[in-house]
Design brief:
CATH architecture: Alpha-Beta Barrel
CATH topology: TIM Barrel
Largest sheet: 8 strands, parallel
Number of domains: 1
CATH superfamily: Alanine racemase
Strand content: 15-25%
Radius of gyration: 17 Å
Helix content: 40-55%
Strand order of the largest sheet: 7-6-5-4-3-2-1-8
Structural class: alpha/beta
Mean pLDDT: 92
Distance between the termini: 22 Å
Shape: globular
Length: 220
């Protein structure tokens, strides 16, 4: 059936409030699937792996806004700094320092989110509230000219929605605290299985993969 991805995306878009950005998670999706969304006007795509993102960047239109949502590989950051729109998964001052150093070479300011750990699952990474606050208050981090921390991100547990509800509530409270303290802020939470709950708790970005593309296929 033609236009399955496009129609699915447009239906979802109608359900999402206009003040919430849809980030299409294109990990392991082929170029044609991304191009279908591009043709209906979508520009924000998220990738988990730097190598895959770079290959797609080379082959796709240059006005796409690429988001890094996976675990940061510090030795590969240099490949995405020239074109990355937003890094969602920063977890240490060391990573901020590396991003700042590379961005300085390209005369760019890189927007970043701190990834907060909001669940106890071993495969879900992130930093604690205390660690995040320490980074934000650290004078060295605050005065890095080529990195800008503009919000926080979190990944909920793959459990019943009552558990996810508690996790999103926690991140929502933290978001409000930081927003009141630092001004304009972004909250990136909610995926295909729990995006409606994330919207309830004030997310500004939802990261949707299978809901838009269906099952993942490998790749470019």
């Amino acid at each position: 059936m033609k236009y399955v991805i496009e129609n699915r995306f447009l239906r979802i878009k109608k359900l999402i409030p206009k003040n919430v950005k849809i980030l299409a998670v294109s990990k392991n999706q082929d170029l044609s699937s991304i191009e279908k969304l591009y043709r209906v006007g979508h520009r924000d795509f998220g990738e988990n792996y730097i190598k895959e993102m770079v290959e797609k960047y080379k082959k796709l239109p240059k006005d796409i806004r690429w988001h890094m949502i996976g675990r940061i590989q510090s030795n590969k950051l240099k490949y995405i700094i020239p074109f990355i729109h937003l890094i969602h998964s920063v977890q240490s001052t060391k990573q901020i320092n590396i991003i700042n150093r590379i961005a300085f070479k390209y005369n760019k300011i890189i927007n970043c989110l701190l990834q907060i750990k909001i669940c106890n699952e071993k495969n879900k990474s992130g930093i604690t509230f205390q660690e995040a606050s320490k980074i934000l208050e650290n004078k060295t981090s605050k005065h890095m000219k080529n990195v800008k921390i503009i919000g926080i991100m979190g990944i909920a547990s793959f459990q019943e929605l009552t558990k996810v509800d508690d996790e999103f509530l926690y991140l929502h409270k933290l978001y409000n605290e930081y927003k009141n303290k630092y001004g304009h802020y972004i909250l990136s939470m909610g995926m295909s299985r729990d995006y409606d709950l994330a919207i309830k708790y004030g997310t500004t970005i939802v990261r949707l993969g299978t809901l838009i593309f269906g099952d993942r296929t490998k790749t470019i």
